[in-house]
Write a structure and sequence with these properties.
Largest sheet: none
Structural class: mainly alpha
Helix content: over 70%
CATH architecture of the largest domain: Orthogonal Bundle
Number of strands: 0
Low-confidence stretches: none
CATH class of the largest domain: Mainly Alpha
Strand content: under 5%
Radius of gyration: 20 Å
CATH topology of the largest domain: Tetracycline Repressor, domain 2
């Protein structure tokens, strides 16, 4: 006597909801195991869809990775703009926004995915980076009186430091016998001091 397995019920989603579901699954995999786990079959299984569905929406696993990075950059920019929004003290608002930047690169795997895309020559596909930088510069940094060039440089330095801490901060600090959070603390102290010095 054989036991029949119940048939899986298919979930019908709009194209946008289907894309969001796949990106959420890819982000969950990225956070748990790193970018090397972002394989087509694994993302499809995590999302509960067929491989063909992932291919239909993104064209390839490279397309998923690039779309995920674009998605994470858009979330990051929105989070940085939102962080400290209700602070009345400008220094507290700067600190909240800078800490949010480091949180994303350190805890959500964004630094690992960005490095992976650069190492696989896919960095040119990060279409939202320029828009995100312009948005942060226009809304958060430039109103402080910095020139456009100085404001962009400050954002560039902040992202490079946050990405470096996200990739190497904890293991390198542990390797030389420092507390795991030491690289993050040093980078934040440097950036916040620089911002204060420049009146940002």
């Amino acid at each position: 006597m054989s036991i029949e397995k119940p048939a899986k019920t298919r979930v019908r989603r709009s194209p946008e909801a289907s894309r969001e579901n796949i990106l959420a699954a890819a982000e969950a995999l990225l956070t748990r195991t790193g970018p090397q786990a972002l394989k087509l079959a694994d993302v499809a299984a995590e999302a509960g869809v067929a491989n063909a569905t992932v291919l239909h929406h993104f064209g390839s696993i490279d397309g998923v990775q690039a779309a995920l990075m674009d998605h994470m950059i858009a979330q990051l920019a929105a989070g940085v703009l939102e962080a400290g929004e209700h602070e009345t003290d400008p220094a507290a608002a700067r600190e909240a926004a800078t800490r949010r930047l480091f949180d994303v690169f350190e805890t959500r795997g964004a630094a690992r995915l960005a490095a992976w895309l650069v190492l696989t020559d896919e960095a040119s596909r990060l279409t939202t980076v320029r828009q995100a930088v312009q948005s942060v510069v226009a809304t958060r940094v430039k109103p402080s009186g910095l020139s456009q060039e100085d404001a962009e440089d400050l954002v560039l330095l902040s992202v490079v430091l946050a990405m470096g801490v996200g990739l190497f901060g904890r293991p390198l600090a542990a390797l030389i016998g420092k507390p795991e959070e030491r690289a993050r603390d040093l980078a934040l102290d440097f950036l916040l001091g620089l911002k204060e010095e420049r009146g940002v």
